[in-house]
Amino acid sequence: xxxxxxxxxxxxxxxxxxxxxxxxxxxxxxxxxxxxxxxxxxxxxxxxxxxxxxxxxxxxxxxxxxxxxxxxxxxxxxxxxxxxxxxxxxxxxxxxxxxxxxxxxxxxxxxxxxxxxxxxxxxxxxxxxxxxxxxxxxxxxxxxxxxxxxxxxxxxxxxxxxxxxxxxxxxxxxxxxxxxxxxxxxxxxxxxxxxxxxxxxxxxxxxxxxxxxxxxxxxxxxxxxxxxxxxxxxxxxxxxx
Length: 241
Ligand SMILES: [Zn+2]
Prior knowledge:
Elements: H1 2-9, H2 14-24, H3 40-56, H4 59-71, H5 76-84, H6 94-97, H7 104-115, H8 143-149, H9 151-163, H10 173-180, H11 187-213, H12 219-240
Helix pairs in contact: 7-11, 8-9, 9-12, 11-12
The protein binds zinc ion.
């Protein structure tokens, strides 16, 4: 869009002079339209222009907006990115998933789980593979089942909640994130948010190990893994708070 605005301003550059002479001639950037045979860059300028006109409700508001981007403190491209980027509705679990103390791989697993994007067996039915949960062998595998309808994972989550002194009923990820969401920066609330991400990561890792390596940790060993992570975090974070 910066290119289109520079054409409007008749900026002094070889490219602007060339397109003004070769393409636009006597027309204006606001009344001109690209042809099917034009280059992708040229077509994208007009596609963005049309999108802005449609969103802002006319040419004049677009010109005002672009002018403010040009003279504002933020770079033009930063304003353009903010204008065009897709803005999803805020989610209640953002500060739980993206807790700064969590390791990126733990946050990433929790994020995928919240979005329902882990490759659970109910999402792979086109492969005609086994749909049974490899943790409990007792029900079909899905996000809702793994977190935390599954007997195997729910007993671990119960144990973890006991360590974390969490007494609320948190039988699903949605419920857990609603309880843990807050802006508190003290050690305990942060450790609780970290722990949920660690637990989801370890459950998913254990599930994959059972399917792909055909080996299984006993829940006791799994609990020790969790405690190891928890203690590691707790002692290291306690030193810096
Ligand atoms: Zn299960």
